[in-house]
Every structure is written in C-alpha cells, then in structure tokens.
Amino acid sequence: MRTGLVPTPTVGLTTAADALRDEEAERTRRFIRIGWLVAVFSIACTLRMPGNRDLAYLLIGAIGVTTLASVAVERVLARTQTVHAWMMNTLALLCVGCGALAILYTGIFAGAPLMITLGIYFFCRTERRAAAIAVFAIASGAHAVIAVLVISGSIEEPGFLPVRSNISLQAQIAGHLCAQFGYIMAFWLARSTRAASLHALSELQKATRLAAARAAQLDELRDDLDRALKVGGRGRFTGTVVGSWELGNVLGRGGMGEVYEAQHVDNQRPAAVKLLRRELMLDKAHVDRFLREVRAASSLESPNVVQVYEASRPDDLVSFLAMERLRGDTLGAILRGGGMLDRGAVVELVKQLAGVLELARKAGMVHRDLKPHNVFKTDAGVWKLLDFGVAVLADTTGTLTGGGVIGTPGYMAPEQAKGEGVDHRADLYALGAIIYRCLTGRVPFAGNDMASVLYAMVHDAPIRPSALGTLPTDVDRVLAIALAKSRSDRFQTAVDLSEALGQALANRLAPSWRVAGDALIRAKPWRELEVDPPRSPGT
User: Which fold has domain 328-523?
Assistant: First the structure.
C-alpha cells in the first residue's frame, strides 16, 4: 500500500525577481573584473598625465581602495552567489567618489562623465529602487555641484583640460546639461531594462507553468485511456492514502477532479473523497473554488447536505475533501429516466431543499448553481444538495471569472445572468426552475445557444405550466412568483415557496399568494403552447 501522494520531482521554478537576482550576481562579477582593467589603465594614465599632483595621488588612492573593496565583493559573490545590499551600496559610493575625483582631475568636460554614465547604468539596474535613486542622485549631484562652481567662477577648475576662456557661458551650461541628460538616460534605461526583463521572465515563467500543466494533462489523458473510464474502475490514485483515507475505485470524474470511494484507515468507515486535479493546483482560481466548497459544505449542518469528514488545508500538497459516501442518483438522472416526478415527490423534494436553503440564507450564503445535477436522492429517500464550489456570500458577485456569469443556463436567475450581485433569492429562482422542470418535463427556457437562453431568461416568460400538464392554475401563480424577473417580486424564503407549492397542488393556495401571482401574470403573461393548425384535406 502506498502511504501518501509524493509529487514527481521537478525542477523548482523561481520567480522572475529570483532569476534577475541570480543574473545580478553574475553580472556584478563581470563588471568588477572589467573594473580591475579600468583601474589599472586609469592609474597608468594618471601617473603620466599632467595635472594637479595632489588630486592625482588622491584619485589613485581612491581607485586602489575601490579595487580592494571590489576584490572582497567578488570573492563573496563567487562563494555565495548572493548580492548583499550593503556591499553593493558601499561599492557604488566608492565608484561615485572615484568619478567625482576624476572630474576634478581631468575637467568637467573631459571623458570622466562617460565612465560615470556607465556606472549609473550598471548600479541602477539593482532590484533596490531606493538604492538606484540614491546612486543616480549622488553621481549626478556631485557633477552638477562641481560644474556650477567652475562655470560660475566660484572656483578655478583644477582639471588639466579646463574650460577654454573663449567658450560662452551658454555653451558651458549646454555642455553640462548634455552630461546630465546622459546620466538621466542611463538611469532610465537601467530601470526600464530591469522592468522589461522582469516582465519577459514573468511571461516566460507563465508559459513554462502552462506547458507543465499541459504536459500533466496529456499524461493524465494517457493514463485515463489506459484505464477503463467507466465509474467503478481503478483510478491513478487507487490504493493511495490521502489524509486518513485509503482511496478505492473511481466514483466519478469531472472538470475539477475525481471522486473516489474510500475507507478510513483505522475504522474502515466508508466515504467519498474528492481530489482536485493536480494540474489545476497551479491555478489559484480553481484552488479557491475547491476550498470554497470545503468551507461551505462544512458550515451547514443538515441531513440534506453532504456531511464532511475531513478536508485538506490550504498549504497541503494535495487538495481533497472527504465526505459521506452517497448511494442513489441525482435528480438529473432521475428526470432523464422518467421525464417528470409525481406531485408528492416534488413536494417532498422542495420541502427538504427548502430546509437547506433556509440554513444557507441565515448564514448569508448563496449556492448559485442549484440544478438537477446538484440534487441527489439517496437510497433512503433523503434529498441532498451538492457542490457548493461556486457558493458566495449574499449581495456579492463573488465570481471566479472576474465578473463573468457563474451558474447553469436554464436555472440561473435573471440578475445572475446579467452578472449582477446575487442573494438567496437567486437560489429560490433556481428552485422554482427545478419545480417547473419536475412538474412539466421541460426547463423554463431553452434555446440553440447560451446567448438565446440567457436573453429569454431576462426578457421572456416561460410556457404556462398548466398548459404542459394537468396542473392546477394555482401552480401557475406559484411559479409566476418563483420565476419573477425581479427578485423583490419572488418568494422571500424557501419555506414560503415550499408551503405555497403544497397549497397550490392541493388547490388551497393562500389568497395573498393568488393576488401576487395574478398581478405578475398580468404584467408578464405566460407564453402559450404553440400547436400546429390542422391541415386541410388533400394538403
């Protein structure tokens, strides 16, 4: 027996920031090595160039200190591949200091600003935005201060390439502004390059994850083809222990995952365990929907809700939900087999579902996907409401599709079809649609595509129920209220709907409900069943 789900070892996917951080370490080492060559060249040139000897020796000393510091940084990077902020900030300040001394030594319009521009581009690609701004501000500001003092005549330029006396003040200012523009462009290029790299790596990472998910889907499809897809066959996790449950044969498969029959490893208690498909665990929306079902199903204590035995935690490797093992069939399957339910069965169905919906209303919860497929009748005759995976709190859209329509066409309320906020009365509409289907053998609205169904739900009336079967006219009134376009016109509680339906089927509907139903029918008359006219003889 296997004793857990062990994921196949894979190469860990870092974030885009992690990838750039690793790249920064290697890029820094290359920059430092190039810097050593620049340092040797600069010292050699400084020793041979004319100029202020005191500044020359000060510059050589600064280059030497910076070089020693860079050696220490390079050794740390070679050993740890980790860029420490304090090291890089210190090295950046030393380089800026060397640049300022080089400007003083050579002159404000000599070649030193070019090296500063390259330094700004390198150091400002860091992930630390504040450090990048500080490096740019200090380097640019130091040059600006020196230039202002020299151009204004406050100090005599000490560089061996001084500003010529015949150059106009405007030309000197323009020349310095060009240097500052170069600094600004270097800073902007550094930050935009980093942002573009982050975006590109992030998109690549998404594509990699999607490819991994597609590969997992293909693997699972191959596995599924190798196994019998019929219910009752072995699944890929048959024999595995998940939580406290040993998984058996597959009870069902769906888009979200698989349901296995299971038994407790200690007391052999039977259960059904729902597993989220492994490729969907990469998708936060699907994980959220699964955990939503866990929370919703666990919060309602009723014999008409599937009892939850155990559930995974958000940080578990495998998302699962262990619940009571149901034996019976869904209302959808029952209706497909028989077309309709008898009146007594409908009354009992609605009575039991009304109890669950009333609990949900008091808890501020809306199921949002009430339909025959999500209603289950056990062998003991108990109706169970299934699948709280898209349940939300009342008065919210709460969709997992960013404002899209959640629910099943034909059973969703008009406000739900329009993507508006929903409350418990959306579930009452769906219950009314189920009643309509059970008593007439038809869904209230049908069409060739989803758009036509949703349009009819919002704007049209269904066919009169009593025209589709031998039903009392009171049933027309009850369903007119239950399927009202405006939720304020509907029954306000499931208990009211259940009681009114029982009265209507017995021709004893309360006068207040008759008045309300008649008013809605006058405002929005039922459609009548279309009957082809009899053909004339000989045609």
Answer: Transferase(Phosphotransferase); domain 1 (1.10.510)
